[in-house]
Amino acid sequence: MGRRSGTVSDWPSLPDGMILIDTTVWVDYFRNFSTPQTDWLDREVSLQRLGLTDLILCEVLQGINTARQFDVTHQALEHFEIYSTGGIQIAVMAANHYRALRRRGVTIRRTIDCLIATFCLLHGHQLLHNDRDYDPFETILGLQVVHP
């Protein structure tokens, strides 16, 4: 079930096949930095089914300095599907992913990245990112990543 503007969907009923855009890409995009990821986003924004999670929304909005820019950014992001990543099941799965990577000698620096990657793995979503912490999720755990 898709998202209505301004609401957050519960994750158990999500359809598969979306591309989630990570905070790292949104920050560069809104700052007009040209990277392979932002160029891909600019090119594909009207052609692909794109979304983000509540955690990504929070991270992006935390970095906004002015009230006006906060409102503009918030409104822009509300045009995409936004999903909740909370809950006990995903927390336990993310902790297990962290532990599995740790056993292989990889330490993920941020818990939010574990939650986002786990959300994508759970629902079969692809991730567009510019963050090396996702690389072991791709190479070891099978996270689907968009490589522009």
Salient structural properties:
single chain; 148 residues; alpha/beta; Rossmann fold; five-stranded parallel β-sheet; 7 helices; 5 strands; 48% helix
Describe the protein in words.
The chain is an alpha/beta fold and 148 residues long. The chain has one domain: 3-Layer(aba) Sandwich (Rossmann fold). The protein has a five-stranded parallel β-sheet. The longest helix is centred in the middle third of the chain and has 16 residues.
In DSSP terms (H or I, runs of 4 or more residues), the helix count works out at 7
Estimate percent helicity.
Answer: 40-55%
> How many structural units, i.e. domains?
1
CA-CA gap between termini: 28 Å
CATH architecture: 3-Layer(aba) Sandwich
List the SSEs and their pairings:
Blueprint: E1 19-21, H1 23-30, H2 36-44, E2 50-53, H3 54-62, H4 67-77, E3 81-83, H5 88-103, H6 111-123, E4 126-128, H7 135-139, E5 144-145
Parallel strand pairs: 1-2, 1-4, 2-3, 4-5
A few lines on this structure:
The protein is built from seven helices and five strands, in the order βααβααβααβαβ.
